[in-house]
User: Which sequence fits this backbone?
């Protein structure tokens, strides 16, 4: 009997990939921060398919992969507690005060990288950079808000559906940060892995991603 296809995937992809895995079967998904997963693959972790939220980390795997393609995009948002009012992003340093901003590690986690770029472009980075709660994946940033440990966090729009304790309080303008690119790579030469990779890029996979709020891959 064939071994299941092992997928390493960005934490923000959990809901659609769990749904896809349930439909196709024989798939095991390990979720985490894109940078962490990429490093694990480079160190020999036995992944068949890698699905990350930033093209730079996929490029780090260049010597280990057979096929690469963008397969989805997303929207960057600021979240707060369920009862939090909307926030003007220009006022973020003021409303944050001495509290901390949840964000993926700004030098490793894609949502953190995108978030830092957006905050810099909006002119508020200097006002918040000393008050960051950096975490190892975007879902961990959401959890900080859901638990009341921080008032706000930078996440993707699709992450909000993972918790009924948070809401979107601001949306970052698309031009304020590089385009959000979910990039996948076929790591092994197993036919089962190639088949899953094709399903994800095809009609079935794209429909599931859209169902969970993901956007079509940026061109």
Assistant:
């Amino acid at each position: 009997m064939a071994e299941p296809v092992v997928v390493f995937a960005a934490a923000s992809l959990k809901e659609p990939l769990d749904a896809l895995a349930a439909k196709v079967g024989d798939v095991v998904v390990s979720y985490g921060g894109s940078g962490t997963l990429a490093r694990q693959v480079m160190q020999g972790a036995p992944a068949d398919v890698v699905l990350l939220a930033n093209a730079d980390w996929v490029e780090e795997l260049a010597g280990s992969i057979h096929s690469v393609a963008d397969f989805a995009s997303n929207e960057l948002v600021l979240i707060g507690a369920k009862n939090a009012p909307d926030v003007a992003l220009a006022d973020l340093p003021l409303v944050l005060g001495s509290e901390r901003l949840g964000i993926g590690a700004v030098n490793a986690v894609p949502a953190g990288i995108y978030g830092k770029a957006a905050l810099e472009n909006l002119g508020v980075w200097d006002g918040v950079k000393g008050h960051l709660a950096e975490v190892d994946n975007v879902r961990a940033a959401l959890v900080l808000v859901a638990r009341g440990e921080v008032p706000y966090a930078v996440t993707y729009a699709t992450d909000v559906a993972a918790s009924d304790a948070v809401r979107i309080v601001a949306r970052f303008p698309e031009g304020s940060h590089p385009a959000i690119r979910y990039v996948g790579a076929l790591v092994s030469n197993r036919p089962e892995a190639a088949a899953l990779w094709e399903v994800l890029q095809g009609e079935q996979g794209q429909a599931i991603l859209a169902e969970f709020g993901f956007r079509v891959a940026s061109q």
Observations:
- The chain has two domains: 5-73+181-211, 76-176.
- The beta strands are 5-10, 27-32, 49-52, 67-72, 76-81, 101-104, 132-135, 152-156, 166-171, 182-186.
- The mean pLDDT is 92.
